[in-house]
Amino acid sequence: MMEKLRSFPEFTDTHKSMVDQELLRLAEGLRCPQVLKDAMAYSLKAGGKRIRPMLLFAVMDAFG
Fold first, then answer.
1. What is the per-residue pLDDT across 4-57, written as a single tens digit (0 to 9) for each?
2. Which phi and psi angles does 59 have, rounded to 5°?
3. b vs e for 12-25, b when ≥16 Cβ sit within 10 Å of the residue's Cβ?
4. 15 by DSSP, 3-state: which?
5. CA 60, CA 64: separation in Å to the nearest integer?
6. Alpha helices by DSSP H, the chain
7. In Å, what is the CA distance from 57 to each residue of 3, 16, 30, 46, 48?
């Protein structure tokens, strides 16, 4: 049986927090000065870094 199609906002809400948490976790795990980690975290929170992960999740969702 096919899964019910979801709206784009529903799809992004499902995956956004997971992407946000992973990006921040990866930035915090880098070996660099804390001031650089803080700058990266600030930039990552802006939201523009999510289109590629969302596209990947959409493709994975489409192929099951």
1. 567 878 878 878 888 888 888 998 899 999 999 999 888 888 767 778 888 888
2. -65, -45
3. eeebbeebbeebee
4. helix
5. 6
6. 8-28, 34-44, 51-63
7. 15, 10, 25, 20, 16
CA–CA gap between residue 24 and residue 7 (Å, rounded) = 26
Higher pLDDT, 20 or 3: 20
62/54 Cα distance (integer angstroms): 12
Separation CA 26–CA 40 (nearest Å): 10
How far is residue 46's CA from residue 50's CA, in Å, rounded to a whole number?
A: 10
Query: For residues 44 and 23, is the Cβ–Cβ distance under 8 A?
Result: yes
Structure tokens at 51: 């289109």
Output the six-digit token pair for 38: 């803080």
